[in-house]
Design goal:
Helices cover 58% and strands 8% of the residues. The protein has 819 residues and is an alpha+beta fold. Helix 3 runs antiparallel to helix 7, helix 10 crosses helix 14 and helix 10 runs parallel beside helix 22. The protein is extended. The two termini are 39 Å apart.
Length: 819
């Protein structure tokens, strides 16, 4: 199938077949290689092959340049982190006209990093000193209060001892005098240590001190109400001030080790009240000075970060672009003279002129004396798949690609998926009230797409925004099917005409008990609203939706088989036409196509024939008379003919194809061991008949087993896939019944209480139930079932999906600076 494109840069889009590709080779002089790759990256239409795959990244030509760009990227990440901490936002607008030199950027980044690191180091030192002084001040305050209270109590005790009158027994006086006359040289002198300990460790700290010194200490702790910043970690923590009294150097050394183990910060303290006041004054003065100095340092740091922020995006773009260029240059190989680089890659056929123009511009702009060489190579290698999509078709193409990327120039299911996917969704979701709700939500995303596309959205919101046009189509089709089902939040409306039915007599007040008679012309569009609430509603709608599901399923499966015909015709595979497409069409339509015809005849004639009986006994007792189940003359002969054709089509699919492929292989390779290479224009055509699978030897047993599996899968799948389409009926019924339950059991019940408060509660419950269950969960459920019907029931009839995407070298797609 030849593809014709109009002139100009952008030929018309053709989603049916991927763009024709060719393998191109470019030979570029060393002096213009950098600019050439840059221009090709701006163009974004060449997927380079790695010609140095056997070399490690460190053995490649431009390893040093990539390392250099990586170092600059590290500095930029450091700047970004610092700006994020300081709350500085980089300037988003980039001046495209200014061309900056990479060497200048490298020098500037080095200077700025050195300055910023020095500022941070000085600021950290000052901040640490400030935090230490804050803690020291708290120790002076809390320990000073303890010592002051101790002095007051000691003075009070001394005055009590001096003022009390000694009136003791004479026999006890010598003993008391003996106790009081202690040798001053033998008095124990107590030492003390002060500091802060984390509050959560304070009790353990006190217990360990007590055990380590065997109780020969006295400790007092005071709680600090506000959190303080720890000088070592820089994090806020709740702490207690402690004072530990001890006796002896051994006890002191133990206490010091325990303080170090518990992260307790110690500070010097004097018993002298005068020295305490002097130290408090000095600490307060130094705190004030440090606060001023730190503020000035932070202002200077913010100014520097704002200067960086003005140029950050420009530098970041330049570094990422240069890194991508050198990474691509490393995929090119040096020629023998080491004066040129040779590159190979895939490119669309329509882009050949643009690629050549880019090569020519690069040679002129780099003042190269030798131009680049562009030539097309012939290869049997499978080209990548490239579909040019727009913002509307991209989401539908992604749905297909999630199953598997189309093989090169294989028929693309997306062409029909754009219509069939939202339609099958709507068959299960048919309610024009719910469809309008979906439409309003989607219109918000579509109308604000420019603003939302530049924002960071959550995972779920990002997914919904990416598929906004899919949801838009789903909502339109839901409104359409909802009008057919005549359901608006499960309420029917006579939109197009009055109902064709009325009550049987004047005394009829309840249609569910008396029944209906037809008095007017048939309702012109969709389901008559009077069916709602009647005894016949469920039997009628079940029959309608079940038969409709079978018709839709058989039609879509036929479409899939017809697509396989166009694939076989495109790839010139007559074997697939006569021994795959023809028997598959006969088998499917002789059974389920015939069932679909019977359904339509029954609808048109109003016959009471039992189609279940007809289909079952078509296999079990094909020779029996049909009796009252006969829908048209000579039906028995037609059924016998169809049954015979269906049985014949199974060996027709299974047997001839492997033998024909074997014969073709032998004819192709007989006496061609040293033949010339095929140089026809069909060198890029890919063999799709499954004969060799790209291998040199032909394994007949493998091909036969593959064909056997394929035949069994199709025969059994024809039954199971048709039954699978009944999910359209099941989910449509579930959606309708859930909607009716919420309306009747919530809204109408709340209305019946004649109470405003209960009515408001009922309305709120109805809204939340409708949104949560019907508009979210049911939407997701119907979406997944429609996805399954396309991936399994439709695409397996023709779609191989074993290709790989066209991934050109471009500067616009990669947002990750580490790539």
């Amino acid at each position: 199938m030849a593809e014709s494109h109009g002139g100009g840069c952008c030929p018309p889009m053709d989603l049916m077949r991927s763009e024709p590709m060719h393998l191109v080779q470019v030979i570029v002089p060393m002096e213009s290689a950098h600019l050439t790759v840059s221009y090709l990256g701006d163009l974004g239409l060449v997927q380079f092959k790695d010609l140095n795959s056997d070399k490690s990244p460190f053995q490649r030509t431009y390893a040093a340049q990539i390392k250099r760009c990586g170092e600059m990227a590290r500095k930029l990440r450091f700047f970004k982190e610092q700006m994020s901490k300081a709350g500085v936002t980089p300037k988003e607008t980039i001046d495209e006209d200014i061309d900056i030199d990479l060497d200048d950027v490298e020098v500037k980044l080095g200077e700025l990093e050195a300055e910023l690191v020095e500022i941070n180091a000085n600021n950290d030192k000052l901040q640490r000193s400030y935090n230490e002084l804050v803690e020291y001040k708290l120790v002076l305050e809390k320990a000073g209060e303890f010592f002051a209270s101790a002095h007051r109590s000691a003075n009070a005790q001394r005055s009590e001892i001096e003022t009390e009158q000694v009136d003791e027994d004479l026999l006890e006086a010598p003993l008391l005098q003996e106790e009081k006359s202690v040798d001053p040289t033998k008095q124990v002198k107590l030492g003390f240590l002060t500091g802060l300990v984390p509050r959560e460790k304070s009790m353990v700290f006190e217990r360990i001190l007590f055990r380590a010194t065997r109780g020969n200490i006295f400790i007092r702790q005071s709680v600090i109400e506000e959190s303080v910043v720890d000088p070592n970690s820089g994090e806020k923590a709740e702490k207690n001030v402690f004072v530990v009294f001890y006796s002896g150097e051994r006890a002191k050394s133990k206490i010091l080790k325990i303080c170090e183990a518990f992260g307790a910060n110690r500070y010097p303290f004097s018993e002298d009240l005068g020295k305490q006041a002097q130290m408090m004054t000095e600490v307060s003065g130094r705190l004030s000075e440090l606060k001023t100095t730190i503020g000035a340092g932070l202002d200077h740091r913010n100014i520097l970060l704002e200067t960086i922020g003005d140029k950050f995006e420009q530098w970041n773009l330049k570094v990422r672009k240069e890194k991508a260029i050198y990474h691509t240059l490393n995929m090119l190989s040096l020629d023998v003279t080491k004066k040129c680089l040779v590159g190979e890659g895939w490119s669309p056929v329509f882009a050949a002129t643009e690629v050549q123009d880019a090569l020519q511009r690069a040679a002129v702009d780099s003042n190269s004396q030798v131009g680049s060489i562009f030539q097309v190579l012939r290869t049997k290698e499978m080209p990548p798949t490239f579909f040019r999509t727009n913002k509307f078709t991209t989401a539908f193409q992604e749905i297909v690609d999630a199953y598997g990327v189309a093989k090169y120039q294989e028929a693309n299911p997306s062409v029909f998926t754009i219509v069939t996917f939202p339609f099958l969704f709507a068959v299960m979701f048919g309610d024009w009230g719910h469809g309008i709700c979906l439409l309003l939500a989607t219109m918000y995303l579509i109308l604000r797409e420019k603003k939302l596309s530049s924002q960071k959205l959550g995972d779920i919101m990002e997914m919904a925004f990416g598929g906004r046009y899919v949801i838009f189509m789903m909502s339109l089709f839901s409104i359409y099917t909802g009008l057919i089902y005549n359901e608006f939040f499960s309420i029917p409306f006579p939109l197009f005409a009055s109902s064709a039915y009325e009550c049987r007599d004047v005394s009829c007040s309840e249609a569910t008990t008396i029944g209906l008679i037809k008095t007017r012309d048939t309702y012109p569009f969709g389901v008559d609203p009077v069916w709602k609430g009647t005894r016949s509603e469920l039997p009628f709608l079940n029959s309608l939706k079940m038969k409709m599901s079978i018709l839709i399923g058989v039609a879509q499966m036929n479409l899939g088989i017809i697509m396989s015909f166009f694939n076989a015709k495109f790839f010139k595979s007559a074997v697939n036409v006569w021994f795959q497409f023809v028997p598959q069409m006969i088998f499917l339509n002789c059974l389920f196509g015939y069932l679909s015809v019977l359904i339509i005849i029954k609808w048109c004639t109003g016959s009471q024939a039992d189609l279940y009986h007809v289909m079952i006994y078509m296999f079990l007792s094909p020779m029996d008379d049909l009796g009252e189940n006969q829908l048209f003359p000579n039906q028995k002969i037609v059924q016998l003919t169809f049954l015979f054709l269906a049985l014949v089509s199974v060996p027709w699919m299974l047997l001839p194809k492997p033998f024909i492929l074997k014969k073709q292989h032998e004819a192709r390779h007989q006496g061609l061991s040293y033949a010339h290479l095929d140089e026809t224009d069909e060198s890029l055509q890919v063999d799709t008949n499954g004969g060799g699978h790209g291998h040199e030897e032909f394994e007949f047993s493998e091909i036969f087993v593959h064909q056997l599996i394929h035949t069994i899968e199709f025969v059994l799948g024809a039954v199971s896939n048709t039954a699978s389409y009944l999910r359209l009926w099941a989910l449509s019924l579930a959606h309708s019944e859930l909607s009716s339950v919420f309306y009747e059991k919530v809204l109408l019940m709340a209305w019946g209480f004649n109470n405003v408060f209960i009515l408001i509660i009922g309305i709120l419950v109805f809204i939340f139930a409708t949104v949560g269950v019907l508009l979210v969960m049911e939407t997701l459920s119907a979406f997944l079932h429609a996805l399954r019907l396309h991936w399994v029931e439709y695409q397996n009839k023709f779609y191989e999906g074993d290709g790989y995407k066209f991934a050109p070298f471009t500067f616009t797609l990669d947002g990750n600076e580490d790539e």
